[in-house]
Amino acid sequence: MQLEVKIDSAYSEPKVILLTASMTEEVDTIINQLTMQxxxxxxxxxxxxxxxxxxxxxxxDLIRIYANAGKVFAVTQKGEYVLRHRLYEIEALLPSYxxxxxxxxxxxxxxxxxxxxxxxxxxxxxxxxxxxxxxVSRRYVSKLKKLLGI
Length: 150
Description:
seven-stranded antiparallel beta sheet, 150 residues, globular, single chain
């Protein structure tokens, strides 16, 4: 990939032009990253479990987001929060890296994963830095392996 930056006082705001021979995963990732920076509506907020105060959650602090009993929860170092969005809406707000969907009911932040245990047949065990353990569903194993280069 080549990167070129031109400074021109004729432009009042930045303009990005992406030249490519075809749409690739790399191009898609670049577009996602740029649009995430531009769109101000990527705010995720939730109420701490058991409280009524709404807090804005930083994306970098999110460890995992999961659905359970008809509600969507976000886990951070500070605690667990109930979100008012559906899981697919949260997935659309988050960048495709480091956030990865590992099942129909869970999205994880790869930056908070300690390691992956591949000893289990047909699935992958995910161990987080905070000690929590979860599993990748069989449907998402190949996607995660491809992402990890396995």
